[in-house]
Design goal:
Layout lengths: L16 E2 L18 E6 L14 E2 L2 E2 H10 L6 E7 L5 H10 L2 E5 L4 H11 L4 E6 L7 H12 L9 E3 L14 E4 H10 L3 H5 L3 H5 L6 E3 L16 H16 L7 H10 L16
Parallel strand pairs: 2-5, 2-7, 5-6, 8-10
Antiparallel strand pairs: 1-6, 3-4, 7-9, 8-9
Helix pairs in contact: 3-5
Length: about 280
């Protein structure tokens, strides 16, 4: 059987992480029997189609701030970490995180799997929630449901991996999130040796479903035609339209169901980015 011949990633470098001065959401509470759930938000400034997108403004806040704020609302998350790269170009992002007093971590740009694993080790995670920084409508209730699903199985054992887009997508693209146990993350790092599996953190798991216990979260209606992730200027215009709509009505805490209803009531919004082609994993 093939194995990863690369050395195990290390978290020995002292300058890879910066902890916030104040504790993150629920960090003052003792972790329950789930252990410690850490949401790791994958972020960098070097986007090819929309450079620097995560610091662009959406109704008065940066895209990254929108993501962090929504993730911190998740009741099942004990700590939130921004995981960026060691590239000099991402120093601006580190400075921004420190200004906001957010936990941050630096790791490999291309070996994102090692970046996640080292960040999870650094912040003592037993379970990781994976979120990307280009999803400014990410939903805290979906995160909570995924974490709860991952901790409950028919034989009272924990699932290795859960997501809300595999094997069938019904949520809008842009609400994607995943949970993975630390044991499964370590196992993937040992087994994944091709660059594609190192770049896309959990790809190995759902391409080898018989090797892991996998759970899937879905919803009753199909919203998969809605595109809320931000890869292009058209995508940014779409999410700005949604945020501007709710800001104008004074609803600053709208949920994803309200956003979906607004999109259905205003079908012309969907035309803004309906021609955008999703990049393949």
């Amino acid at each position: 059987m093939k194995r990863n011949n690369q050395p195990e990633p290390s978290n020995q470098e002292p300058d890879t992480s910066v902890r916030a001065n104040t504790k993150s959401h629920r960090a003052t509470e003792q972790p329950d029997r789930r252990g410690k759930t850490v949401a790791i938000i994958q972020a960098r400034l070097g986007s090819t189609r929309l450079p620097g997108k995560i610091l662009l403004d959406i109704a008065g806040q940066s895209m990254l701030e929108r993501v962090v704020s929504r993730v911190k609302q998740a009741k099942q998350v004990d700590e939130v970490v921004i995981a960026t790269t060691t590239n000099d170009s991402d120093q601006t992002l580190i400075d921004y995180c420190q200004q906001k007093n957010w936990n941050c971590f630096r790791g490999s740009e291309n070996d994102v799997l090692s970046r996640y694993l080292d960040a999870a080790r650094q912040f003592s995670a037993t379970r990781v929630v994976r979120v990307t920084s280009d999803c400014p409508l990410i939903a805290s209730d979906v995160i909570d449901e995924l974490v709860q699903l991952s901790a409950i199985n028919g034989n009272d054992s924990k699932l290795d991996y859960c997501c809300n887009f595999y094997p069938i997508r019904r949520y809008p693209r842009g609400l994607d999130c995943e949970t993975i146990s630390m044991d499964a993350l370590e196992r993937i790092s040992r087994l994944a040796y091709i660059p594609e599996h190192r770049e896309h953190v959990t790809l190995y798991a759902y391409r080898h479903p018989t090797e892991f216990s996998i759970g899937s979260l879905t919803c009753s209606s199909d919203y998969s035609a809605l595109r809320w992730t931000v890869d292009t200027p058209e995508d940014l215009a779409m999410v700005r339209k949604i945020y501007d709509h709710f800001e104008s009505t004074g609803n600053h805490d709208f949920d994803w169901q309200e956003a979906a209803a607004a999109c259905m009531a205003n079908p012309e919004w969907q035309k803004i980015n309906h021609m955008v082609i999703q990049k393949a994993a």
